[in-house]
Design goal:
Elements: H1 3-22, H2 26-29, H3 36-45, E1 54-58, H4 64-71, E2 75-80, H5 83-92, E3 97-100, E4 113-119, H6 130-139, E5 140-151, H7 155-168, H8 170-175, H9 191-200, E6 203-211, H10 213-220, H11 235-247, E7 255-262
Parallel strand pairs: 1-2, 1-4, 2-3, 4-5
Antiparallel strand pairs: 5-7, 6-7
Length: 263
Amino acid sequence: MKDDSIDKTNRVTKEAWCENWINIDIETVLEIFNYPRVRRLMGIIVDYIPKEGPVLEAGCGLGPWVMKLDMLGYKMVGIDYQKECIDKIKAYNDLLEVYTADVRSIPFEENHFSAYLSWGVIEHFAEGPEDVLREAHRVLIPEGKLILTVPYRNIFLKIKGPLDYIKNNVFIRKIFNKPPRVRYYQKYFRVNELEEVISKSGFLVERIIPVDHIFSLVEFCSIFRDKDSYDGESKLAVFAGNFLEKFLRWAGAGSILVVACKQ
C-alpha cells in the first residue's frame, strides 16, 4: 500500500472511530462489566497485570477499562487519539490520568510502564502494527507485560463475509441510493503471523489464547444480543458461547489474547 493510500485509510479509520464513540456516554459504556464475556476476560488478564508501577491502556476509547482497573487499585494511564473521547472521560472523572495521544508516538519516556494493555487496536493501522509495538516496547520496563487482543476471523465471520461485502460495496449502495459507509480499516491476523510480529518487536510471547466466543455470536446475529443493553449478550449467547469455547476453541473465537513480556 502506497504512503498516500495509507494516510487516507488511517484518516478514514479515525473518522469512523469518532462516529462510533460520539453518541455514547460513559455510563452506558461502563455497562460492559456486567457482561459475562467481559467478566471472563477480566478474570484472565488480572493474573498478568502487576499491581506495582503504572499501567498504560493504549487506545482506551471512552476509558471503561481505565476506570474499572483504577477502581481495583491499579495505577492506570489511558491514551487515545480521539480528543472527543478523552474530553468525555475528563468530564466524567477529572482525577483519571488520560491524554490525547497516538499509540505510535506515546508521550512518556522509555522504561516507564509495568504493563501495556491494548484491546483491539493494533489491527487498525494500514501500515501494519510494527510502529505501535515498537512504541509499546519502548515505554515498557524490562520484563514489562504486553497484554493485547485482536479480532479473529472465525467461522461466523467467514459465513457473513459475502453478505457484508454486498452491504458495504460502494457501487451496490449507490444503486439503492444509500450513502457510502465510513468504515475503519481492520486486519485479521493468523495466529503464527501475530506471534511473529510481536516476537520481532522485542517481546517474548508467553501465552496466546482464543477468547470472546460469546462475542463472536453477538457479532454474527441479533438473536444473540441482549436488546435491553448497550452491547450485551443474551442467555442463548452465553450457553452457545460456552459450547464453542469447549469444542471449537479456535474456530468459534472472537478474538486472540496475547500475553508477552519485554525482552
